[in-house]
Structure formats: structure tokens, C-alpha cells
Here is the input.
Amino acid sequence: MSIFDKITDWMDRMTEVSVRGVASTTGRRSFLARAGLGLVGAAVMPVLPFDRTFGGSGGMALAATADGDEFSCDYWRYCALDGNLCNSCGGTLTQCPPGSEVSKVSWVGTCRNPTDGKDYLVSYNDCCGRAECDNAPFCNANQGERPGYRMGLHNDINWCMANASQGYHCTVAVLVGIAE
Ligand code: ABN
Here is the structure.
């Protein structure tokens, strides 16, 4: 008898022993009911409303580390970000630091993700209501941006202008969609 035969033989015996154990302690009906419940549960799991943002404040979820260094101004999502990175000010890539609030208006840029080659719409929201966070990297990327006389296309603006507290703290970069 080969080693393989011995292993499968042993597995057969173990399976038989455990099935006999279950059969001797459990009624057939309750066993079927439990097995059915397990199958239904497994089928429903993927559609339950889990939080799939992985801690983000909204927008689309992407693995933050798989596609570059989000603490560097070279990170692809910052292609049109003009401001201080909130993730170096106690916030995250998408969430304002404690004590500041997200701007009601924002500048939306279009950046290409080098990992999948797709263009994404990125909302650059300023975080407002605290003094400027000036010990974070200050990024000034202007892809798709135009000078100040084209107001709607200009990104060098304090987006806290519509908030009650208009002091600029830092800027987050939230994915809001794929550019067609
Ligand atoms: N959107 C960042 C920013 C804030 C204040 C002034 C210019 C730019």
C-alpha cells in the first residue's frame, strides 16, 4: 500500500468516525435544518450591506498602499492637488483631521491610476476651521488646471469659503468616480 493510499484510507476512517459521531448525537431533521441554514447564510453573505470603504470617508475604495505612496506629493491621486496633505496632519487620505470639517465645495481633478490605467475623478476638499497645518508636505500639482481668470478651472482657491469657519487646514483627495 502506497503512502498516498495510507493517507486517503486514514482520511476515510476519520471522516466516517466524525460522521457517525454527528449522526449518533443529532437528529436527522435538525442536522438538515442546520446545514440548510448554513447554506442560506453563505449565499446571502456577499449581498449584506458591509462597509466596503475600508475606513474611508466615502468615495470609491482602493487599496491605499498598493498603488503608490500616499504621503508623497507624487502619489497619482494628487495630480491636481494644491494644498497640505491631511494624512500628515492627523487625518487620512480621505478624512479631515479631528477638529476640522470638510469643505462644502471642492475642486475636482482627473487623475490616471497607474495600476489599472483608468482615469478617476478626484475631489480635493479642503479641511476647514483649524489653523493651517504647515508641517505636512505641501503639494502643488496642476494637471488640467487653468489660471485664475478661468474661475471654474482654477484650483488655487480656499475651498472653505462656503463653510461657517473658513480657516484652511489641509486637503483630502476622495475618489468620486471613473472619468469616461
Ligand atoms: N485649496 C487649498 C488652498 C487653500 C487656501 C489658499 C489656496 C489654496
Remarks:
- The pocket of benzylamine is lined by residues 82-83, 126, 156-159, 168, 171 (CB under 6 Å).
- The mean pLDDT is 81.
- The chain is about 20% helix and 20% strand.
